[in-house]
Write the structure tokens for this entry.
Amino acid sequence: MIEKGLKIFLCVMFLCCVLAVGAASGEDDEDYPQEPIIFTKPVKAVVFDHKLHVEENGLDCDSCHDDPFEMAAGTAEENKDFNMKALYEGKYCGQCHDGDSAFASNTRCTLCHIGVKGYNRMTGVKPKGHGHE
Amino acid sequence: MKVNRSDKPNFVTDEERREFLKLGLKITGVLAGGSILSLVPLPEDEANALVELEGYEKTPYKPHYVMVIRQNHCVDCEKCKEACKKTNHVPDYGYRTTILEKMAEDDEGKKFSIFMPVLCNHCLNPPCVRVCPTKATTKDPKTGIVVMHYHKCIGCKTCMAACPYNARYFNEEKRAIDKCNFCWDTRLSKGEKLTACSAACPAHVRVFGDFSDKNSEVWKLVHQPDKAVWVLRPETGAKPCIFYMND
């Protein structure tokens, strides 16, 4: 019985270690989501690619985390003011996308707005209905 | 920051504009490989060059319902499509309006989509009306809306073949062709000022209004001297009443 308890204890410790290492590497500067983040609120859909912003534009984690974005995808999306008006006022993406640091939020709409069609392409959803799309 | 052509709301370069005007004097201008006619509104004294637009301004319709589509503002959120489906009970296998997509590249080689909302063009010379053997589709003499009379439709689909805009589908439940009627029965006749799609659009892409009223937003949008306005498939002579622009 004691032996069994010890085994369980060791297993739990091992798992904790694995999780701790995993979490630590998660904070590594070069570690960021490889897949694009897709926002679906308030409209479907807007794409944000970490790869593009980090590798091509040289941003690091501090540039956007935790201000204006918390490090959990979908957090900003829950806010009522997560919309274009807020961006024009310099919030969220608008902090950089102001026409100075990066292209202004009221230009090049469909570079980020991929639409329902873009969303379906990225998530593998087949559009229902007529077969013309 | 480097100026990107797609930052400019009006995508037409001076060179292209010159081409429009040159051709415009011969009735039409052609943009994007000939599929599109530009109706560049010239100042009033030169307006006689615009044979095409003139036709639109002398119609018997009052109100003359048209739609101006500010194409570069469309992000394919498809709220218009959802609203249309809900308002007009459009089944999944058909559509009264939809969004087409074309891929393009900006000056930096980045790919982006051009989204193009399409719907019935409520043409001044509607080919569908001409070919219908039972007069089940007509152009409303008051508003210019191309309407369906479902009880007269025999489902021969000749109108579907005749429509240059693929704006018609066969509705299994109605056993008749169905199409956009600018929400006449569901909204306009009940006092609403906008179609469901226009009211649902968050980016003011679908501007709906009365073209016979010179104070209307649609009239003003089309009559800006420095903006290119085009219609789809002008070569059919149907004189469509859905105008497109980048604004």
